[in-house]
Amino acid sequence: MQTVKTDLAPQAIGPYSQAVVTGNTIYASGQIGLRPDGSLVTGSIEDEVLQVLENVDAILTAAGVSRASVVKTTIFMTDLANFEKVNQVYGNFFGDHRPARSTVQVAALPKGAQVEIEVMAVS
Asked: Does the chain have fewer CB atoms within 10 Å around its N or its C terminus?
């Protein structure tokens, strides 16, 4: 198993890795709307989701793959009323690529975030 680390995404805020690689599979830890400096994006849900996906992109790049390698995502949201807004940013990010996905509402997320996304990709 190999760990993935990049300064282009926020550092883990607990005892875990940004991502791990085992075989040809990359498991990226859930990302929230933290900038690489650790500050939380404020403003619209769209701004927060865009930062989350930029973090995912940076981690995937550090692992040597692109977003086209993502096979599964899980989106955790604190309010499913924002589903369409999140879906719009997510759809723009992935373009024609359509990984499998689950979306669930949760009571709370770290640092008061509104959305967290984790991905699995293959190399």
From this structure: N
Distances 53 to 1, 2, 22, 23, 118 between C-alpha atoms, Å: 24, 22, 22, 24, 10
- Does the pTM of the predicted model rise above 0.85? yes
Among 46, 114, 33, 110, CA closest to 80: 114
Residues 6+ apart with CB under 8 A from 39: none
Alpha-carbon span 119 to 123, nearest angstrom: 13
Whether domain 2-122 has CATH 3.30.1330.40: the reply is yes
User: What would the pLDDT profile of 21-37 be if each residue is shown by its tens digit?
Assistant: 999 999 999 999 999 99
